[in-house]
Amino acid sequence: MASRMMKSETYPVSIQSSAESNTSKQGVLKGDKPAVGSSRPCNEHSFLTDVADVRTMEQGLLQLLEDFHSGKLQAFGGSMTFEKMDHIREQQERLARLHFEMELLQDMHRRDTEEGKTASNDKMGKLIDQLHAISSSIQRIQKE
């Protein structure tokens, strides 16, 4: 970094009192000898690779790009995957709505009453059934 600085810029050598600063030099010019530890040049990172390896990697990447553009690459399988994922999203939304409805009904019906407990158990059963349906839909997509 010091080699990129302009010649007129200075770098502090040490912290000095105001009396010392009047009598001594405040910094070091680029042309002067730099402070200890910064005199060695900055080493750049170099990659030691064989040209044949680089060409092999390049060919592999070009083939991958060609497969992508031709439509050979599919992340989730082929048949109607996006439609299935939309269906799963809709199931999740229905489950969330049912959950909120269940919460509202619990507030209206006292949880302490037998009727409230029965309604709560029925709604919980529906929530669990829908959750199982979502889980099996996701598993079917993963198997394809």
UniProtKB/TrEMBL annotation:
Signal peptide (from-to)? none
UniProt biased composition (Polar residues): 11-26
Using the UniProt annotation, give all residue ranges assigned to the region (Disordered).
1-44
Per the record, the coiled-coil ranges are none
What is a single Pfam family found in this protein's UniProt entry? CCDC28
> Which InterPro entries would you find in this protein's record?
CCDC28 (IPR025271)
Q: What is this protein called?
A: Coiled-coil domain-containing protein 28B
| UniProt source species | Mizuhopecten yessoensis
Upper classification of the organism: Eukaryota, Metazoa, Spiralia, Lophotrochozoa, Mollusca
